[in-house]
Amino acid sequence: MTKTKPPSKKSEFLNLPVEPFVVQPGLSPEEILHRMERISFQGRNLATAHRVWQKMLADNVLIFLGTAGALSAGGLRLIIAQLITTRAVDCLVSTGANLYHDLHETRGRSHFIGSPTVDDHALQTQHIDRVYDTLVDEDEFVENDNWIATFVTTLEKRPYTTRELLYQLGGHLWKETGRDGILTAAFRAQVPIFCPAIADSSIGMGLSQARQRDPNLGHVDVIGDIIESSNLVIRHPRTASVVVGGGTPKNFINQASVQADFYRPGIGGHRYALQIITDVPHFGGASGSSLDEAKSWGKLSNDADRVTVQADATLVLPPLTSALATTARTQLESRQAPRFELGGRAMVVDGKPLIVNRFDTNRVEVF
Amino acid sequence: MTKTKPPSKKSEFLNLPVEPFVVQPGLSPEEILHRMERISFQGRNLATAHRVWQKMLADNVLIFLGTAGALSAGGLRLIIAQLITTRAVDCLVSTGANLYHDLHETRGRSHFIGSPTVDDHALQTQHIDRVYDTLVDEDEFVENDNWIATFVTTLEKRPYTTRELLYQLGGHLWKETGRDGILTAAFRAQVPIFCPAIADSSIGMGLSQARQRDPNLGHVDVIGDIIESSNLVIRHPRTASVVVGGGTPKNFINQASVQADFYRPGIGGHRYALQIITDVPHFGGASGSSLDEAKSWGKLSNDADRVTVQADATLVLPPLTSALATTARTQLESRQAPRFELGGRAMVVDGKPLIVNRFDTNRVEVF
Amino acid sequence: MTKTKPPSKKSEFLNLPVEPFVVQPGLSPEEILHRMERISFQGRNLATAHRVWQKMLADNVLIFLGTAGALSAGGLRLIIAQLITTRAVDCLVSTGANLYHDLHETRGRSHFIGSPTVDDHALQTQHIDRVYDTLVDEDEFVENDNWIATFVTTLEKRPYTTRELLYQLGGHLWKETGRDGILTAAFRAQVPIFCPAIADSSIGMGLSQARQRDPNLGHVDVIGDIIESSNLVIRHPRTASVVVGGGTPKNFINQASVQADFYRPGIGGHRYALQIITDVPHFGGASGSSLDEAKSWGKLSNDADRVTVQADATLVLPPLTSALATTARTQLESRQAPRFELGGRAMVVDGKPLIVNRFDTNRVEVF
Amino acid sequence: MTKTKPPSKKSEFLNLPVEPFVVQPGLSPEEILHRMERISFQGRNLATAHRVWQKMLADNVLIFLGTAGALSAGGLRLIIAQLITTRAVDCLVSTGANLYHDLHETRGRSHFIGSPTVDDHALQTQHIDRVYDTLVDEDEFVENDNWIATFVTTLEKRPYTTRELLYQLGGHLWKETGRDGILTAAFRAQVPIFCPAIADSSIGMGLSQARQRDPNLGHVDVIGDIIESSNLVIRHPRTASVVVGGGTPKNFINQASVQADFYRPGIGGHRYALQIITDVPHFGGASGSSLDEAKSWGKLSNDADRVTVQADATLVLPPLTSALATTARTQLESRQAPRFELGGRAMVVDGKPLIVNRFDTNRVEVF
Fold it and tell me: What is the largest CA-CA distance in chain A?
């Protein structure tokens, strides 16, 4: 881990005391987080995350949000939707499952409160699927897959990037349901969603079932997603990364930055990085990798504000986003977020389309 | 894990929908926790912990609190002090480190904000000790040890249970400093503190240094603590357990219940159990053991309300206790908490002393 | 978790004693594992994994292997290659990173021993990338990407499933290097490899760079992979799952089984499941999900032999596969593994091609 | 974390390639570990642990072993016994549970193979206790407690350090059973055992039951243990620490070194440190603390060979000690281990008794 020259006097090390948290009735979540800035361990890290997110919003950066883990099934989908709607983030990269479980609820169905010690054979008999302490009706999932396949028949018979496909899916869902959710919020706010591992999800299964109806349907261009996400960074080279849960979104967001730098040297990685993860670095996996390690790859600029919160997102996102709803209000209102138009094959950013199907090597830009 | 007969119809499984958390500015911590009751995973568990703690307070139970991990160094000592002062708990079982770090700050010193990636050799050179991201002046620690040794010279030359010793220590500290902290709050509120592993802490080191001055000093009777804690349960057989961090306190609290049941059969384990831990069950260690497993041992009554929150306490205790400050106010005000007098060798509970040095096998009691 | 009717007598519970492990010089790894069958916790689970893998090999099942985490960079790629060559597994599902790091070494380059506490800024300056305690030359990675792009120009200008693409890549690599590795072993043994999240990897980056040369290059059909993997299960419905590290491969292997069952009801999930993971179930993510939970989804047959080993694969695979090299020799020699021909668009299994681009709904089969 | 000046050229970083592990039938455990020295992550750490332990044995150091977690119940007690008998370690610091479960089996009883998903209420009804996947007869435990209480009545009516008490207990057990185990091996090999948290264990419960028979029985002097363990380090200032599972033993071993240095400055911490743990550093607890952090406290000399293996001990100790049985044979045979006589109140080391009841501040020694 990179570090600055160590102080040479004791007083230089010992200058900011821990301040014990004092409980009071009537504290707001933001006051709680403010007090947590002066405690230790993951509590302090959460408070730092609160500050780092505020700084991102006050700076001129494009904010990626990565979502992995069962966030939608676990009750966090409207938090993500709200981050999109208020433009606390600018571009979502997600696992397919989170989008599928979002679609499930936007279509009017539910996940249900269960227990991790229920009899799984009994569940199987009843066509009920379990995600730890949460249950869902498998027959409704089967029907979702069919609904997706039917939606796909309304598309053109050509490959779609997941970004374009998910925009269309969000629009279709909004027209049919008029309900809030991740996909519909992203459609309405014109916020792009990438899903690099779409083949590893029930949305992918729905696409495959569309192809069963017509072999020219259900084609996705995930390599096109790599190009488009990199061109987005080339267009808007100052970026930030908010990662919840690790997985493919964490790497894809970093890859967009690294690949952009390959074609337009000097981009230099994210300016801010915040991750909420439960994996640890010492087994070598990418989900748990540290933000210091990210610097070696050029995924992160060397002086980036960065913080890792080691915790379950269901514990962390509700208080964190509740606090931001107050503390970041000014920044959100005055923020000049990138403006997208997502209806066509080419993503339009701030009025100018990105190049399609090839990396943008032409731009001469100072940043 | 024990479970009831599974439902035979799908609708019996799927009856309580997950309700996605909706962010709003101005939510109080208790409103946030209330909404988290209907999400999943550890977020839901935290909301359940909030409810279980309220139920404990409304019921006639003796509430043990176990504290392990670097809670005091990490900025949580005044939360624990406040739980003691408001009698949200009735008896503390702690590692020595938490009490020692509390004493350090009550004596007017500090822990300091640091970084986990600092140069540890430089720290060693400067006489600075590190606890992950938190620093402390080693020379001040040396001086604390000496202060403790001097305090011990004021005691009688006989073995003390840790409970009696820590009461005297709290009193001495209060007289000298007049400052809030765990030890001083417990002294003032007459709440007993047990420290079964005192020999594995700097308080133990201070006691050993007292003996260096006089071989008749620094004797503790930790077996006496076993007897007294069991007699406490025999006197007040309806109990609850709040465990933060596992370790020796977790087991000691359970052991008090099991040992009490041995001499007064029918006690039947804690009525409520709430644990906030980071260890996991599948390596077999006691810190991470599940509350279902606890039932096999009779540590927990079979129908106990119980919940495990898998998280760092620094993330969880600030919002949880902030919410309780409001939501449990009525229960705390009307609560008939056990009343202790701790100045003598025998702990006095509700006006009657516990038997000293032997288990109370005489009581005939209905509960 | 499903369980059988509990025994009603103590002796029915307490019938198989733990046998303390006895150390002796000269024990073979298989003798060590044999003794570990009678200890507890993850040690016992590893011994069970050894037995379960042997049972798979003795039964007529198609064995999937899923690989996630930095296995290749971490020194395990020749273990995976050997599992493929000896047909201890029949079909690999992998993250892109594992295949890319394999390609890197097969091309004659190395990963290097490093330290997790090295200065990451210094690494960045030197163009060195870090994976926890392992280092790699970033300039060589850039050259790999270019090599992949050049390879892609030798392919037809049409979408390839990752399975077909990786077979061609393995062949190209074998012709150029003649060296052992995952990709070359799979090519030579005609073992299929799927990479559902290829867009989230440097192989995907190489594909995107090919498209920079020609917009008709670098197209992959990941939805085709869903169909082909399901048709493989429809053809060979008795399956087993060996999962190392969770991630997208874990879910993709289960999805193939579930999707196959949708078109050919009665398949009923894997007959055997073995997973070596570091994630835990209680945060709700798929990587850490339990094999009991898998039963609720129909991913696993209700009576499947199954075991989870909670450990880093670098600790577990070397002794486990070393033992299997001896203990499974007979099964491996007499095993009638599915025979693949992978050169064309349609995968040929045991002499008969799978249907391309649509699920196989025609087969009438008894199993 | 302390680090040396980083190399300035790429080739200085990238000089020792990872060598992929190659599976072969007939490899011995030591050959497996030797090959694992060149892989990554926890696999490499285990190989390093193997080397570090060999180096300890070849050097003139006093080796502490700390044991926490359910090692004895989990089938590792004879490994620990063998480490004691062969003097691969010189002094044991243990939780009470490990010694109690050892006593249980040495007395001819067993722990039993169970499942983590068994019905705990049924177990409770049958008087069966569960430790994750391991079961034990609670009625036999009750009888053990009584046996311990009866043993205690044979002791003098004065406080015993846990070290002296456990030596007597081991002797009593050996005379009665003639069976191998931790306590009996330590008795026979004259290896001291400290149990600083004895009050938090069933041995403590047995002691408390002895006091029920006679108030002058069951007194332990845990502060005396602090003094004796420090005097041991003062006598033999070159030390090594092998920690399995963290907990109170980990800290007590470090405390002995720190306290010794207080009275005899210049000792400078352990020369070697090896820990096998499942806890992580980022929650601030001592069990998971890093060995770099230990240096800031002076628990570890700055240039100590040290390694942390993040894994369950049941996975790691069987292969590691099996390999050492061969690879360390020469060192074990030629080793000049400290020679103890433990029958009296004063521990005799190499023919000279340690001072009792006060720290040894008189020695003038060069080391």
Answer: 73
